[in-house]
Amino acid sequence: MFLRPSLLCPHHPYNSIFLILLMVDDIYLNKPNELFEALERELEDSEKIVAIQIAPAVRVAIGEEFGYAPGEDLTKKTIGLLKQLGFDHVVDTPLGADINIYEEAYEILHALERNDEDYFPVFNSCCIGWRLYCSRTHEKICKHISPIASPHMITGSIINHYLQKKLGKPRKEIVSVSVMPCTLKKYETMEQFPDGDPYVDYVLTTRELADFARKKGLDLKTAPESEFSEFFPDSSKDGVVFGVTGGLVEALLTTLAHILEVEKENEHYFRNDDAIKEREVKLGEYTLRVVSVHGFANLEKVLKEIEDGKKFHFVEVMSCPYGCVGGPGQPLPADEETLKARAAGLRKAADNKDSVATVPQENPTVQKLYRELLDRPGSETARKLIYFHKVKL
Ligand code: SF4
């Protein structure tokens, strides 16, 4: 495992992510060759459909492994590279983020409607580093972490269940892979459905994908541009901005405003890299206090305020500097300037997205998935397929 020396300092605000890596078994003992061999076997098996999802933060960092500047949006070339590697379907993890935030918005609205003070604050479930840290250091708070699965796991579940339905294939012939900025996402796949089926079968980090491509003699620079799977073509701006600090809160507020059919104030308040961003936002008849924080030392300040009686409706926690763009599976070295460039690049990628949807509920793929698979937010099927069944890790 590669440790950045500055992060070993006990006073560094981001040191805890590496302590978490040491707390969990095996994960840091990367065995890329075994992983690559397993993937090669799956890709060569003509009976199997192998689908892969790409997390938002990957697109603005993978280029660094191939000589591009940090922050350059290489979504289409990365899809092309994955197709050259033999993957049958490439899916955008922001599609799972769209579904995650759509469900979250409804859960929060229902709690507001029934005036359920005890429901708040809600903490995000999408950062596995935060969930592990919480379960080991603040166990009492864990019940406030959203039970809605992370975008990674939602996308994995959608790939498995929708492709089984559409292609008439049994689960054992569908392989669900992911490319994540996060080494800990490998640990997240230990969370399974009650019958023991995983949401995601294999996780590659951004660096591992680059190594896998090089092993196969491929280069991102010469890869053709390509498009996401015809079964899952769309994701919204909100889903993409998830990968950078403040993005989740921005997506939640935009989605809530859209559902409530009201204007959203302070549109771009969360569009900066500050370690703690806090705001009271008026949405029609409701006033919500929300906060976005990255780094555990900063989180501890927010948790102290909560302990002292401060009320929040939603708390976004990202373990890594600047959010997932600064994840431990991203290219190295990653200095402050690189992280800032990735963060700015991802916000720009979200705004420039050639998608018909800016919010999850307008995303045609989200609409199709609710129509054909999930029914409606909070439905029995949604709870079965896209919520966590075993929250404690
Ligand atoms: S913020 Fe870091 S630990 Fe959390 S999900 Fe993203 S990359 Fe993983």
Can you tag this structure with a few keywords?
393 residues, alpha/beta, Rossmann fold, four-stranded parallel sheet, four-stranded mixed sheet, 14 helices, globular, disordered N terminus, binds iron/sulfur cluster
How does the SSE layout of this entry go?
Elements: H1 15-23, H2 32-44, E1 49-54, H3 75-84, E2 89-92, H4 93-113, E3 122-123, H5 128-137, H6 151-167, E4 174-180, H7 185-188, E5 202-205, H8 206-215, H9 237-240, H10 247-260, E6 276-283, E7 286-294, H11 296-307, E8 314-318, H12 336-351, H13 364-374, H14 380-386
Helix pairs in contact: 1-5, 4-6, 4-10
The protein binds iron/sulfur cluster.
- In helices, the fraction of residues equals 40-55%
User: Overall 3D geometry?
Assistant: globular
Query: H/E element string?
Result: HHEHEHEHHEHEHHHEEHEHHH
The distinct ligands, each listed once, are: iron/sulfur cluster
Describe it.
With 393 residues, this protein is of the alpha/beta class. It has one domain: 3-Layer(aba) Sandwich (Rossmann fold). It has helices at 15-23, 32-44, 75-84, 93-113, 128-137, 151-167, 185-188, 206-215, 237-240, 247-260, 296-307, 336-351, 364-374, 380-386; strands at 49-54, 89-92, 122-123, 174-180, 202-205, 276-283, 286-294, 314-318. The strands form two sheets. A four-stranded parallel sheet has the order 2-1-4-5, with helices on both faces. Strand 1 (49-54), helix 3 (75-84) and strand 2 (89-92) form a beta-alpha-beta unit. The longest helix is centred in the first third of the chain and has 21 residues, at 93-113. The radius of gyration is 20 Å and the shape is globular. The relative contact order is 0.19. Iron/sulfur cluster (SF4) is lined by residues 17, 127-129, 181-182, 184, 318-320, 323-324, 327.
